[in-house]
From TrEMBL:
<dbReference type="GO" id="GO:0005829">
    <property type="term" value="C:cytosol"/>
</dbReference>
<keyword id="KW-0658">Purine biosynthesis</keyword>
<protein>
    <recommendedName>
        <fullName>Bifunctional protein FolD</fullName>
        <ecNumber>1.5.1.5</ecNumber>
        <ecNumber>3.5.4.9</ecNumber>
    </recommendedName>
</protein>
<dbReference type="InterPro" id="IPR020630">
    <property type="entry name" value="THF_DH/CycHdrlase_cat_dom"/>
</dbReference>
<dbReference type="GO" id="GO:0004488">
    <property type="term" value="F:methylenetetrahydrofolate dehydrogenase (NADP+) activity"/>
</dbReference>
<keyword id="KW-0028">Amino-acid biosynthesis</keyword>
<dbReference type="InterPro" id="IPR046346">
    <property type="entry name" value="Aminoacid_DH-like_N_sf"/>
</dbReference>
<keyword id="KW-0368">Histidine biosynthesis</keyword>
<keyword id="KW-0554">One-carbon metabolism</keyword>
<comment type="subunit">
    <text>Homodimer.</text>
</comment>
<keyword id="KW-0511">Multifunctional enzyme</keyword>
<feature type="domain" description="Tetrahydrofolate dehydrogenase/cyclohydrolase NAD(P)-binding">
    <location>
        <begin position="139"/>
        <end position="281"/>
    </location>
</feature>
<dbReference type="InterPro" id="IPR020867">
    <property type="entry name" value="THF_DH/CycHdrlase_CS"/>
</dbReference>
<keyword id="KW-0560">Oxidoreductase</keyword>
<dbReference type="InterPro" id="IPR020631">
    <property type="entry name" value="THF_DH/CycHdrlase_NAD-bd_dom"/>
</dbReference>
<dbReference type="GO" id="GO:0006164">
    <property type="term" value="P:purine nucleotide biosynthetic process"/>
</dbReference>
<dbReference type="InterPro" id="IPR000672">
    <property type="entry name" value="THF_DH/CycHdrlase"/>
</dbReference>
Length: 287
């Protein structure tokens, strides 16, 4: 039987509609959620991402501020800006678009963001809280996967989730969040021997490798759920995932397409985290 196609775009849209309502309520109580984005240099992909984030904020009613700096920005000025935004009561979320130019330390800059405003979920405090199963800001892409599965009524409890990839922004947090959902988790990476032996055992595969159509039908057991995080270009320059969608969908129970799967969830969870941050601030003000 052909797989169910998980429509990330529709799920993301539903969540954004819900957020819009929550934001209206917050505004009626005098709180406008605010997101500040810092962009350094002229990486074209980063500029596109930031424009998309700005547009998504406007659509749901989040106030957004973008700070664009030239590539030769000093670390001192950047850290000063972060410190200023940490203190700004109109700002509930701070995001520094990565990658940064090589002379700037990403670790130092992320560490400087107040964990309470780290809506990207990259600060070690938030990562640590996630690791011990506490509430925190979770990294947007893996959190989007969890939300997406929740909306599809797919429980991870007791399932064997195999995550392919161990990056700090996708693979590792996807593994930790799956564990939090009581899955049995295996993490694979470039040094894994006989990768297919692991993925073929999986009830759920989360592919975050960054290689076009890397996993094929035979790498999955029939009836598996396949979550494809990859955003790659195929031989014709067309956007594609880490999974060979056409073959894998023949035997999978459910699969996310690329585009239209995990991608739309990522910015949505950034909006979601920003709204949560504004709500937390509003609650603190009441106390
Ligand atoms: P990274 O390059 O940081 O990580 C890739 C991971 O894949 C690494 O852990 C690497 O292992 C592993 N890997 C590489 N080759 C192999 C192999 N042959 N076998 C097994 N594992 C392998 O990428 P990201 O995690 O940042 O992103 C992964 C993909 O997801 C990319 O296509 C990216 O564009 C996409 N992406 C999509 C997002 C979305 O919103 N949809 C958001 C973020 C990313 P090792 O650690 O050993 O090197």
């Amino acid at each position: 039987m052909a797989a169910a196609i998980i429509d990330g775009k529709a799920i993301a849209q539903d969540i954004r509609t819900e957020l819009k309502k929550e934001i209206e309520k917050l505004k009626a109580n005098g709180v406008t959620p605010g997101l500040a984005v810092i962009l350094v240099g002229d990486d074209q992909a980063s500029h596109t991402y930031v424009r998309n984030k700005d547009k998504a904020c406007a659509e749901v009613g989040i106030h957004s501020e973008i700070y664009r700096y030239p590539a030769d920005l000093s670390e001192e000025v950047l850290l000063q800006k972060v410190a200023e935004l940490n203190e700004d009561p109109a700002i509930h979320g701070i995001l520094v678009q990565l990658p940064l130019p090589a002379h700037l330390s990403e670790d130092k800059v992320i560490d400087a963001i107040s964990p309470e405003k780290d809506v990207d979920g990259f600060h070690p405090v938030n990562v640590g809280k996630m690791a011990i199963g506490k509430e925190a800001f979770y990294s947007c892409t893996p959190y989007g996967i969890i939300k997406m599965l929740e909306r599809e009524n797919i429980s991870l409890e007791g399932k064997h989730v195999v995550v392919v990839g161990r990056s700090n922004i996708v693979g590792k947090p996807a593994a930790l969040l799956s564990l939090k959902e009581s899955a049995t988790v295996t993490v694979c990476h470039s040094k894994t021997k006989d990768l297919s032996a692991f993925t073929r055992q999986a009830d759920v595969v989360i592919a975050a490798v960054g290689k076009a159509k890397f996993l094929k039908k035979d790498d999955f057991k029939p009836g598996a759920i396949i979550i494809d995080v990859g955003m790659n270009r195929d031989e014709n320059g067309k956007l594609c995932g880490d999974v060979d969608f056409e073959s894998a969908k023949e035997t999978a129970a459910a699969i996310t397409p690329v585009p239209g799967g995990v991608g739309p969830m990522t910015i949505t969870m950034l909006l979601y985290n920003t709204v949560q941050s504004a709500k937390q601030k509003a609650q603190q003000a009441v106390k």
